[in-house]
Design goal:
This protein has a 4-stranded mixed β-sheet with strand order 2-1-3-4. The model has no long low-confidence stretch (mean pLDDT about 90). By secondary structure, it is of the alpha+beta class.
């Protein structure tokens, strides 16, 4: 399937969002994606051709109905009916891009050796928000190869404040100055 098909599904949900509920829908979409990725048996249940559609729809209502997001359960039911629920990760990414563009949010990744405290992530987000003049949201990803510090991938660029990068910079400086004697 082409990404444009998934973009169309994401756009359809985006167009159904009413008022200022974009962040609520984005949160629901990301939580659904997480559920489907972590609970493979649930995804298998929703994707099965052998299980009646009505059983799958009841499960969707029970799990996602309490969110009280108009059209969200209907959207999920449509994906199940059209056998597209297995591609929810792509639809989620497309939907996230639409919402972030609408709300002026830049999403990125902050790499670290270990899980960072929320306060540290917010400090880095605030620093980049000032730089870009937009809200910045960073997802923490553990990268054991870092010696220390952090590396941030944001808006198509990598900002490397890791100790490894600083040591490589120092090594290059020493090599240049050592070679000019």
């Amino acid at each position: 399937m082409s990404d444009s098909l998934y973009h169309n599904y994401a756009s359809a949900l985006f167009d159904l969002v009413e008022g200022d509920r974009y962040e609520d829908y984005l949160s629901a979409v990301r939580e659904t994606e997480k559920n489907l990725l972590e609970q493979r048996e649930f995804l298998s249940f929703l994707s099965s051709y052998e299980i009646p559609l009505s059983d799958k729809e009841k499960a969707i209502e029970k799990i996602y109905g309490p969110l009280k997001l108009p059209y969200y359960t209907d959207f999920l039911k449509l994906l199940i009916k059209k056998h597209r629920i297995g591609s929810f990760e792509i639809i989620s990414r497309e939907f996230g891009e639409l919402v972030c563009e609408k709300l002026g949010i830049i999403e990125g990744i902050i790499y670290s050796v270990e899980k960072l405290p929320a306060a540290k992530i917010h400090t880095v987000e605030d620093a980049f928000a000032k730089k870009f003049g937009k809200k910045v949201e960073l997802k923490n990803v553990i990268e054991p190869g870092l010696i220390g510090g952090v590396k941030v991938a944001l808006d198509g660029k990598v900002y490397d404040g890791s100790l490894r990068n600083r040591l490589m910079g120092l090594e290059n400086t020493l090599m240049k100055s050592g070679g000019s004697r």
